[in-house]
Design brief:
five-stranded parallel beta sheet; 12 strands; 49% helix
Length: 572
């Protein structure tokens, strides 16, 4: 409580509070903290007695104080406050040991001290980022006592060689260390981050292991940096203020520099996030953002962290972010056959599983072998059931569910994009230059769709062409079984026409395109037998005598016309 006037008369004040009445609410909050620290302060709103002359009382209090705190807020100095400040400066100039401490409140302009030339030469305390700034409050308390504040605790810890506060980001991201990592993906991510500049976003299909690559990469980058790890998906992606609140809690927990909830909501969330990061501008950071939203808000979050003077930013996302000029995207692809086999061997040794890695890799479908989540789920079953029984006659439902995460991404595509995806699957690893040299014209909608399918990680650009991961091919067959067969039929029909009219020099590039498409044709024929559809005329009823790949000259040119013209075989 405020001391009685009788007691005040017998003792001096530690600080005289000079303020603009329009800033009284902020002044009250700061002075209450000083009072809790044990300082004797004179605040007219607390200390003036009704019925007594206030001007004389304030002059006496100023003369009886060790220092004068000049509160500078959004409204500048009030007329009477300017007089108080001039009296305090004059008293100091005349030889009194009165310290004059400018205190910049939230909302104060950057030029407030320049506008008041009689304050410019005094060391100030800056609360423009919020009143609950431990470092600024420490500086203010030390100034009232007439002492230097000393180095902040975080800086002292770094100078004595102590490591930054440990952050268990693996637990936060549900990605425990397994002793095995995708070395090529981690190396690509680490090289992109250490190149400096733009934030790095790891993109890939659902369940492909982006979070594990994120954590494995962070393990090699965290030395000498304080780690901020945030799960940025779900509700946080829908409402970024939740992310701002997490950053504020981390600041308070790690450095003691957080803002109050009220101060967080004074500005829109991008400005609030920038203000929070400004409070650790002197700290080297490693920021990990898992499952970042791919809309404009996600790009805004990345740019805010990229504005920090010394910050490495590594994030994961389902696809490329919009407005990607200042973002470096790194693809986390499906596992190669060698990686899948190595992963099986590692898990078998770690969990004592009764499986042979090479043998099991031969038995598993390519899409399961390349999908970390599906493969991990399958291996968990082998602890109780022999692998041969799990592969035949069908995979366990939870393995298929993991695989169907990719199907969900395909389902969300518009029809023309699924058609383009089917075309890309047929043209998988075909040299597009050969195709164009042969005279084939790809439809404009295919080119336009690729510009969306590549950022979604459904199609991968390779030298001279495109590649569709087996995971995506399987998902497309699940979602739209006839899509690849239809695309194959349309492309082969056009190639057949080109072959009939080609000159000798045009046959070579045409022939080079047929070998990879023969493989696709064999796959679609097998799919046709399984699904009951004709691989040539894409009829709903199978032909009587299907063959893997028809000769170009015998391709059905009129699907659905009443009969398959391959070798004169009628539709049943």
């Amino acid at each position: 409580m405020v001391e009685s006037e009788a007691r005040r008369a017998a003792s001096s004040y530690d600080a005289f509070i000079s303020y603009n009445a329009m800033d009284l609410a902020l002044v009250h909050r700061l002075v209450e903290r000083l009072h809790e620290e044990g300082f004797q302060v004179f605040l007219d709103d607390w200390c003036l007695v009704a019925g007594e002359p206030w001007q004389e009382r304030q002059s006496e209090a100023l003369a009886d104080s060790s220092c004068c705190l000049v509160m500078c807020g959004a409204h500048g100095l009030g007329p009477w406050q300017e007089e108080e400040v001039r009296l305090a400066v004059s008293a100091r100039v005349s030889g009194r040991s009165l310290r004059v401490i400018p205190v910049l409140l939230p909302g104060a302009s950057d030029s407030v001290l320049e506008d008041l030339d009689f304050l410019e030469r005094f060391t100030y305390c800056d609360f423009r980022g919020g009143l609950d700034q431990p470092r600024s409050f420490t500086r203010l308390c030390a100034g009232i006592r007439g002492e230097a504040p000393g180095p902040p605790p975080a800086v002292s810890a770094l100078r004595t060689g102590q490591p930054p506060p440990a952050v268990d980001y693996r637990s936060a991201f549900h990605a425990p260390a397994g002793g095995w990592q995708r070395s090529s993906a981690v190396a690509a991510a680490r090289a992109a981050v250490t190149a400096g500049g733009a934030p790095v976003v790891l993109c890939g299909l659902p369940g492909i292991g982006k979070t594990h690559v994120l954590c494995d990469t962070a393990d090699g980058l965290r030395a000498g940096r304080t780690v901020l790890a945030l799960s940025a998906g779900g509700t946080t992606a829908a409402e970024p203020r939740y992310l701002v609140a997490e950053v504020n809690a981390w600041l308070d927990r790690t450095f003691g520099r957080g803002l109050t909830d009220e101060e967080l909501y004074l500005h829109d969330w991008p400005e609030a996030l920038a203000a929070l990061l400004a409070r650790v501008a002197d700290e080297p950071l490693l920021v990990l953002l898992d499952d970042l939203g791919t809309d404009r808000a996600g790009g805004t979050v990345l740019r805010a962290f990229a504005g920090h003077p010394d910050c490495l930013v590594l994030a994961t996302a389902a696809e490329h972010l919009v407005d990607t000029a200042d973002v470096r995207h790194v693809l986390v692809p499906p596992m190669s056959r060698a990686e899948g086999t190595d992963f099986i061997a590692h898990m078998a040794e770690r969990m004592n599983l009764p499986v042979a890695a090479e043998e099991l890799a031969e038995q598993l479908p390519a899409d399961v072998l390349s999908h970390p989540l599906a493969l991990r789920t399958f291996l968990a079953h082998t602890a109780y059931v022999p692998a041969a029984l799990l592969v035949h006659p069908g995979l366990p439902s939870d393995v298929l569910s993991a695989r169907k995460l990719v199907s969900a991404a395909v389902v969300r595509l518009p029809p023309v994009h699924r058609k383009a995806l089917a075309y890309a699957a047929v043209l998988d690893r075909v040299a597009l230059a050969d195709l164009l040299s042969a005279g084939m014209t790809l439809p404009p909608w295919f080119t336009l769709a690729l510009s969306d399918l590549v950022p979604r990680c459904l199609v991968v650009q390779v030298a001279g062409g495109v590649e569709v991961p087996q995971l995506v091919v399987q998902a497309l067959d699940d979602v739209q079984p006839a899509a690849r067969r239809t695309a194959l039929h349309e492309i082969l029909v056009e190639l057949a026409g080109l072959a009939a009219d080609a000159e000798r020099e045009g046959l070579a590039p045409l022939a080079r395109t047929l070998a990879p498409m023969a493989r696709v044709g064999a796959e679609t024929a097998i799919s046709a037998r399984a699904g009951g559809a004709c691989s040539y005329c894409v009829a709903s009823t199978p032909c009587r005598d299907p063959a893997p790949v028809p000769p170009l000259s015998l391709i059905c040119r009129s699907p659905g016309s009443g009969g398959c013209r391959r070798a004169g075989v009628p539709r049943p």
